[in-house]
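re: ur question from earlier - yeah i can do the single chain one, its not a big deal. heres the input i used so u can compare w yours
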Amino acid sequence: MTPGRPRVLIIDDESGILETLRILLKNNGFEVETAQGGQAGLEALADGAPDIVVTDIRMPGVSGMDILEAAKSQDPDIPVILMTAQASLQSAIQAVNQGAFYYIQKPFSNDEFLALCRRAAEQRQLRAENVNLRQEIRRRDRSRAVKPVGASEKFLEVLRLAEEVAPTESTVLILGESGTGKEVIARYIHELSRRSEGPFFSINCGALPESLLESELFGHVKGSFTGAVRDKEGLFAAARGGTFFLDEIAEMKPSTQVKLLRVLQEREALPVGGTEPIPVDVRVIAATNRDLDDAIRDGSFRTDLYYRLNVITLHLPPLRERREDIPLLCDWFLQRFSEQRGTGPKRLSRSALEALMAYDWPGNVRELENALEHAVVLAQGDTIEVEALPKRILEPKMEPLVSEKPLPTPTLEVIERAYIMWVLQSVGGHKTRAAEILGIDPSTLYRKLARYESESA
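and the output i got, formated as tokens:
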């Protein structure tokens, strides 16, 4: 509803009454549309969404009660004012019971009619504000529940941009290595969007053969290919009013890219084997771990589709570039595993956390999650010791060999020292801040640094 300019649909079979009420309401700040007769009124309702409906009850063919039922089925909160020259207590009660806002008898004064329309507009505005408020509360509650975990500056920058773009209808392209949490960010955007009441669908474009992917995305008609024994609705149609996440978009074949481009440009999808396009009402979020510039150069990705997708771009950093988030992620995963198993949460020993911090995580957050689940299963007691971690995490990273002599395996003390120096460097030498990140007392950090200095002297 436009604040201050409520839109009124007036339905009557008498053109004189329509024109009189149209001028009256227009001169008093309303936007007015008229329809002569009940059938025209139904068509006007189908074409638009008025804020208020004013209709005569007695009309040939389609009556005012029919209009009331149609308006309420389209929008249960819409105020409907019924007019009649032959009022009775019984008909008034029936109208109110069926949801009419007011039942007014002809003839009525201009002031009486204007006051009635203004009250209807106020009620409409209040209900719209209440709905928006409830939706905003639900969005905030859900966003807190699904908010991605992380406190590093690089990650928070991604979250800030996601939160800015979420309320818009803009297409979003999420770039990042495999396992960085691209779908998590896509769901977060959906939950903060105006489409949060709608569905969230996702599909991995590289996981299905081209023919099956097209059928899943756009649907198909019966007989369009072997095995198509009935019409099938595609995910673009099923996701109407919601968000559709297309993961690994760079794996989509060029012929399918053409159909996706039509969806983004024309907001319609053509089912496989079909001739009639289907309207599409969905927000698209796409993601890839590939360099799309390279894909465009080698001809595997369309330039026009790239520009349609690349309206807002989010670059998710790999886990090795946000190591300070590892303890937070560990706590979150361990808590989740505890809830799933119905047991008390396990905690990481200091040496286990140090090993996790020192590892480079080529599989990113997904690999960290799997490693922690592995450790939870193998750990004895409530504390996860370093021995329970997957062996690959404990294997030293070897520099290129300069001789045939094998390099020594670093001790935990060496790993600890490297980690402490890395944290200290990352905070610009600020020892108190480094101690907070390390979870140790500043005096302990000072003693360790003094020992390192004496050992290297």
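The chain has a mean pLDDT of 86. not sure if urs matches, ping me
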